[in-house]
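Here is the promised in-class demo. Please do not try to memorize the tokens; focus on the logic of going from shape to residues.
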């Protein structure tokens, strides 16, 4: 009887752990709006540098990017564009290149991504536009209310509405940790 109860609790815990990343991923359509929408993103920082040859714009020093209810905060935010080739017709200079499609966005140092009661923190995050995925590293922690998930690496697949939290090493010393507080029933 006791062994059967352990199996039931183990199975219930497995279901909870499988549904929590899905709950995180279900909030991703709003992130999709942030990363794919054509509306404006407000970026505020201490400095901004543009590197035309590298097709890069870097915002550094308390960089904050906001669109709607999503806020990204970091020490350094770099936007990388794919080169679109010669731009004689746009600039009048045959050797100039114009920024093309978004390639990736890199956030480095004290990364905090928030949306309503959801937050993700870590030391680094990279958004890859072609794959529509975000990879967060450097002690990433996901929180929603009192619920918390920690791992070594968090991967969010925006178009697939799913996410994955990975352990740090194959030996299992630093495994994925989840603390889940069941919702209280209201009478």
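The designed amino acids, position by position:
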């Amino acid at each position: 009887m006791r062994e059967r109860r352990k199996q039931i609790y183990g199975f219930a815990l497995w279901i909870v752990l499988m549904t929590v990343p899905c709950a995180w991923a279900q909030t991703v359509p709003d992130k999709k709006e942030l990363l794919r929408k054509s509306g404006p993103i407000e970026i505020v920082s201490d400095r901004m540098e543009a590197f035309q040859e590298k097709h890069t714009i870097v915002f550094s020093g308390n960089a904050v990017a906001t669109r709607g209810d999503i806020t990204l905060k970091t020490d350094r935010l770099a936007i990388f564009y794919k080169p679109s080739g010669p731009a004689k017709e746009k600039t009048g200079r045959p050797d100039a290149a114009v920024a093309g499609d978004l390639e990736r966005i890199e956030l480095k140092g004290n990364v905090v991504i928030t949306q309503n009661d959801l937050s993700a923190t870590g030391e680094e995050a990279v958004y890859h536009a072609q794959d529509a995925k975000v990879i967060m590293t450097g002690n990433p922690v996901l929180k929603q209310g009192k619920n918390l998930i920690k791992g070594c690496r968090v991967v969010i697949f925006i178009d697939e509405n799913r996410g994955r939290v990975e352990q740090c090493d194959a030996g299992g010393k630093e495994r994925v940790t989840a603390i889940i507080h069941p919702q209280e029933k209201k009478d």
